[in-house]
Amino acid sequence: MFFWTYPIKQETMPNTKVIQVAGLTKQFGDFVAVDHISFEVEKGEIFGFLGANGAGKTTAMRMLTGLSKPSSGKGKVAGFDVLKESERIKERIGYMSQKFSLYEDLTVKENIRFYGGIYGLSRNQIGTKTSQILEELQLSEVGTKPVRSLPLGWKQRLAFAVSMVHEPEIVFLDEPTGGVDPNVRRQFWEAIYQAAELGRTIFVTTHYMDEAEYCDRISIMVSGKIKALDSPENLKKQFKASSMDQVFLKLAR
Amino acid sequence: MFKVFMAFVRKEFYHILRDKRTLLILFGMPLAQVLIFGYAVTNEFKDARIDVLDYAKDETSEQYINHLQSSGNFIVRKVLVSQKDMEAGMKSGKTKLVVSIPENFSEDFYAGSPTQIQVITDGSDPNNANTLVQYLTEMTRSFQQMKRNESPDPYSIHVASRMLYNPQLASAYNFVPGTIALILLIICAMLTSLTIAKEKEIGTMEILLVSPLSPLLIILGKVAPYALLSFGNAVIVILIGFFVFDVPVLGSTVLLLGMCFLYVFTALSLGIFISTTVKTQQEAMMKSLMGLMMPSMLLSGFIFPLASMPVVLEYIGKIIPATYFIRILKGVMLRGVGLNFILFEVGVLLMMTLGFLLLSWRNFKIRLE
Q1: Are the C-beta atoms of residues B112 and B51 closer than 8 Å to each other?
Q2: Which residues of chain A have a Cβ shorter than 8 Å from any chain B Cβ?
Q3: Which of A46, A98, A165, B369 could tie A175 with a disulfide, CB 3.0–4.6 Å?
Q4: pLDDT in tens, A41-61
Q5: Are both B182 and B321 inside the same structural domain?
Q6: Within a 13 Å sphere around the CA of B350, how many CA atoms are in the beta-carbon half?
Q7: What would the pLDDT profile of B245-275 be if each residue is shown by its tens digit?
């Protein structure tokens, strides 16, 4: 009976690291945007990537998603090399940027259909996925309305659902909650938890410290380097702080 | 792969059909241009209003005035009675030219002594004034010949001119090729650069690049609908030219369509190149309007002849794709030449296309690094 109280992800096998990064570096001329970062992420984990603007979060994420080539270092995402096999990686990851990445002039259904289409889903699969997403997000009534007409919070959750239309192993979220009010943010995090419970790995960057508390583990980047990496509880203990805000302030100083 | 491509093209058609601005540029612009160039911008005259100040008031002067009107170029608006009235019509813009016939017009004319007719034109519009004076001189000469019983002076030199390929000097022969070149350029280059810049601006380009789609497929998917639509536009303009303005297609139709296709390709590669250098739609718009439309209109030889330009402008004209395409069109449509006569122009367009694609590819790589 004891086991049932544990969240599902604790039961996963120990050697299921979906992201492994060692000494990953990105240099633009003399400027080192990302400076030898190393970390590992487990399957089903919600991994937070924190840092001020310009700390190198986005650059690091772009290297993991194949948008940018690392200057040096090694990395594996979903078992494939980020340097040589970025095409294989792309099939296995989802990505959502802070701009929500939906087409405003297309309807909800057309957006789902398009993204399903470019990931090579069959017509049947797209149909099933569409009704599933519309039902889960309770968007059935606005399925034929242009995305433009939806409130921001809905757009954001739809964008998240669409980024997982091809059932990716890992979902990368680049500041997904920017500009959304706290209430909607909480709803969004519920959706993230749901996805993680299905065994999906979530890699999320944010600069909201309260969101950091929702992550299983977080890494804090300061000027291109990872300065701390642990669970929120451990970090607070380590830095003798009562909140993540304080942890961050102590690190940044 | 084809299914993925079609999904992309379908999405692109949604964008086009739902955006009023794009629709306007796609379908409104070609029509507006053809009509403007066809009916408004023309240097032919029909029924130009003129005033006549007839001091002679006899049979000969009347015959002369009738002769002027018989050409269809002139219509007498008003017969003036005094020199004072001359300026009024000119000032109000109602008349373009005043012919003043002297009192002793017919006596001098039949006596064989020098006869003078005064012609006053509105010099604030020099091109028109020149053309009108030319018409009038021509009509006066023919009047003289007619009156002297068709017995031309045996010692005078007669210039028998014939305008090959455009005997009536119809301006449609010039504007139809020019309009096709402009429209294709605007639609392909401007709209493609706009649509790619839009994906960058709203952040969807990143999502597409993170997806398994290859960059080549993304670009092809984006430009294919525009290539198709602009090609259709070119065909429509050729048809309007043929049926409404009597512009012939003397050369091979297949060659003509093939050349349109080549130029569409050049314009698309130019549009892609522009889009790799911009971040926002506004930038794309500015670059294509200032960098493409203006020079293509003014420096391609479409409106002003290249040869009469200052050397610098002439060289700029020579790096504009439209310059070569207009030459190709005129060759194939009006002179009916085959591919062997336009090899140089075709070669230049091919080289330009290749150049733009290489530059785009380089810019694209830099962005990914």
Answers
A1: no
A2: 65-69, 87, 90-91, 93, 95-106, 110, 113-115, 117-120, 163, 172
A3: A98
A4: 999 999 999 888 888 898 999
A5: yes
A6: 8
A7: 888 899 999 999 999 999 999 999 999 999 9
